[in-house]
Amino acid sequence: MVKREIYSDILREKIVYRKLENGLEIFVLPKKDYTKKFAIFGTHYGSIDNKFIIPGENKAIEVPEGIAHFLEHKLFESEEGGVFNRFSKLGSDVNAYTNFNSTCYLFSCTDKFLENLSILIDFVQSPYLTHENVEKEKGIIEQEIRMYEDNPNWKVFFNGLKGLYINHPVKIDIAGTVDSIYRINKEELLKCYNTFYVPNNMVIFIVGDVDADEACNTIEKNLKAGFKPLNGEVKRILPDEPDNVKESRIEEDLSVSMPLFNIAFKNTNNDLSGKNLLKQDIETKVILDTVFGKSSEIYRRLYNDGLINENFETEYTFDTSYGHSIIGGESKDPNKVYEAICEEIERLKNDGLDVESFERVKKKAIGQHISSYNSVEFIANTFTSYYFKGINLFDYIEVLEDLNLEGVSRRFNEHFDLNKSVLSLVKPNK
Q1: What's the pLDDT tens digit per position in 92-108?
Q2: Can 2-236 and 249-428 be said to share one CATH topology?
Q3: β-sheet with 323-330: strand ranges across
Q4: pTM tops 0.70, yes or no
Q5: Would you list the domain boundaries of the chain?
Q6: Residue-wise pLDDT tens digits, 46-59
Q7: Residue of 168, 23, 48 whose CA lies nearest to 99
Q8: End-to-end CA distance of the chain
Q9: Which of 6, 183, 192, 295 has the CB geometry, 3.0–4.6 Å to 15, for a possible disulfide?
């Protein structure tokens, strides 16, 4: 077992690190006197991982879309009954999520932490799959997919991604399609489970007033003999993605009272890793807040003109193979909003970003990041998300403090390219 401690002098926080002999990495961030305790057991396996080569094999395996999300559903079943009941008897909350890059199982509690941790470790290692319960689950997930198809926020988001990406599977709904889930079978689920739910592809992160040694001992005691690493790394196969977008404008009519819009910008520099990848992430988020945040000139003008409301927001999502920024909200005239945002981008490319606005947003971002360490959920979820991208969360403040206007301006000019953008609209039914 490898043991060490990771410190952040800026945050005044410490992470206890353990790497077990089977390759499983465990991180514990002790928070003395905190009432809530939180744990995540995650695997680096998400909705985009549909084509891969297993170590020792030559032939690529391609599975139906939505299989990672399907597996997440099935792990909550067992021969003894539902996993939710085991946690609720201890007064704790359990949940899970699948995103583009990972699947995570988590719980929070105020008492009986080690008992909860034992259940988490146990059920994630115990897939209960039969032909009958797999078939039954298809109907449940079909209902979930159809529910999202009627959700205007979901539609405006994924329509934007479908316009943005030509080949990359990030454009496909995380749950898959109705057609793809009905092609999933028990054997494929087990193949994916045995490929990605292995110790050298997973991580455990714990935060709260817990004893790190006790937690690690509990984890080791509950690891099963069959929980072994693969002899090598899975080769994930992704299609080549060109820099251009598929469609610059996508419209759909749904039952909404006011039109929704997403303006998406495609990342074209996806060759970064580690701190450089983190820097790109932070630069982009600082730009979005500086240029389009609630204290920006364009926000005030659009808001005062009644063209946007408080639902106007921005986000940047990325991994090592893709990245995109989204500016979205509601508007009675989304075309005018789009025109105004395009004009503002062109103006700032000519005039340059405002140094005072940049410095203000940077200081705000530093304060927000430090204060976010009061949330055990933020720490665990953000650490895990960055971990699977090869990034150490403790580097965030250092990289943020080192940002300068010159580097941020370069990123702005590169990323906010109107020729690599998509306008996605959801409008009221006629």
Answers
A1: 999 999 999 999 999 99
A2: yes
A3: 249-254, 421-428, 260-266, 323-330, 313-318
A4: yes
A5: 2-236, 249-428
A6: 999 999 999 999 99
A7: 48
A8: 64
A9: 6
- C-alpha radius of gyration, the chain, whole number: 23
pLDDT tier at 430, thresholds 50, 70, 90: confident
In three-state secondary structure terms, 148 is: helix
- Which residues pair with residue 94 across a beta bridge? 107
Nearest Cα residue to 283 out of 395, 369, 404: 404
User: Residue holding tokens 């021969």?
Assistant: 79
Query: Who contacts 315 (Cβ-Cβ below 8 Å, separation ≥6)?
Result: 288, 325, 326
359 counts as catalytic? no
- Does domain 2-236 fall under CATH 3.30.830.10? My reply is yes
CATH 3.40.1280.10 fits 249-428, yes or no: no
Give the pairing of strands 25-30 and 202-208: parallel
Three-class HEC string of 44-110: CCCCCCCEEECCCCCCCEECCCCHHHHHHHHCCCCCCCCHHHHHHCCCCEEEEEECCCCEEEEEEEC
> In the chain, what's the furthest Cα-to-Cα distance?
65
